[in-house]
Design goal:
single chain, about 280 residues, alpha/beta, Rossmann fold, seven-stranded mixed beta sheet, 10 helices, globular
């Protein structure tokens, strides 16, 4: 997970701030309630850097459109699943819980590290609409670490489990442990697990200028673990972890098929839908 060098003064990863601003930019329902005030500056800075990176590597896709397609694509699968309980792990400043918990039939749990949960609670407490979300009996903000989550603490109901933007932080052995825990919970209670992960073979090829720049900065610490598994090898790992059905959805197809906003902008997102 991000080191202390990657955190802002409130121990919040800048990536969480950027995604929060992206959801607000994309007019995602509920985003206005849970977007930190300093997210906008991070959003503008990263977009400026991305524009420069795009000059070096024209084949790369827009980051904000990619994150928007990822989030709304998961919402599409959530609607299809029609599960009475949602467990969103590493929820960050996702507006999904604030929006979906307006349906009293849905029990919604958001799980994240203590600093993030505290920041999100403060945001919701700062407005009347946010206080209304916090007062809902079917909405809960929980402190927790996906690597040590007590799954027996959740109600035994058919559930939709989400780990959006999380699996790229872990290497294969850590992923397998997480997936086995989720598969065990769903095998006992029913439901679905959805997450995003873009394998290295699916990433756009890098230009000569970008490869040269990467070699020049080669001594810098890597942000994410890197392995050469294909999407099909990842699906095989998921089946080994205990899922009996693994469905892979690529934004190349689903952006248009699911009528996502900015569907004409090409993005690289793969959503894995897993069932026991």
């Amino acid at each position: 997970m991000p080191s202390t060098m990657d955190l802002d003064k409130n121990d919040i990863p800048p990536s969480a701030l950027y995604t929060a601003a992206t959801w607000r930019w994309g007019n995602v329902a509920g985003a206005d309630l849970v977007t930190p005030s300093n997210a906008g500056s991070i959003f503008r800075f990263v977009n400026a850097c991305s524009s420069l990176y795009h000059v070096l590597n024209p084949g790369w896709h827009s980051l904000r459109h990619t994150l928007l397609h990822r989030h709304i694509g998961i919402d599409h699968l959530l609607r299809q699943a029609n599960c009475p309980q949602v467990i969103e792990i590493a929820a960050g400043f996702s507006p999904r819980g604030s929006s979906w918990s307006s349906q009293s039939r849905v029990e919604y749990f958001e799980v994240d590290l203590p600093a993030v949960i505290a920041a999100k609670r403060r945001l919701l407490e700062g407005t009347l609409a946010g206080k209304k979300v916090l007062s809902r009996a079917n909405f809960a903000l929980l402190e927790g670490d996906v690597c040590a989550l007590k799954w027996t603490g959740f109600p035994a109901r058919r559930s939709f489990v989400i780990t959006e933007g999380l699996m790229m932080y872990f290497d294969r052995p850590a992923q397998m442990l997480i997936w086995k825990d989720i598969a065990t919970f769903l095998r006992n209670n029913g439901g679905e697990y959805v997450f995003d992960y873009l394998p290295v073979p699916d990433e756009p090829s890098r230009s000569f200028a970008e490869r040269l720049l990467s070699r020049m900065r080669g001594s810098r610490r890597r942000t994410f673990p890197c392995d050469g598994r294909s999407r099909h090898e990842i699906a095989a790992d998921l089946r080994e972890a205990g899922f009996t059905l693994v469905e892979m959805n690529s934004s190349v197809e689903f952006a248009t098929a699911w009528n996502l906003p900015h569907a004409g902008v090409h993005t690289r997102v793969i959503l894995y839908r897993c069932l026991c």
